[in-house]
Amino acid sequence: MSETVSFGYRDVDASEKAGMVRSVFSGVASRYDLMNDAMSGGMHRLWKDQFVRRVKPRKDEAILDMAGGTGDIAFRMHKYGARVTVSDINPEMLA
Question: How many structural domains does the chain have?
Answer without folding.
Answer: 1
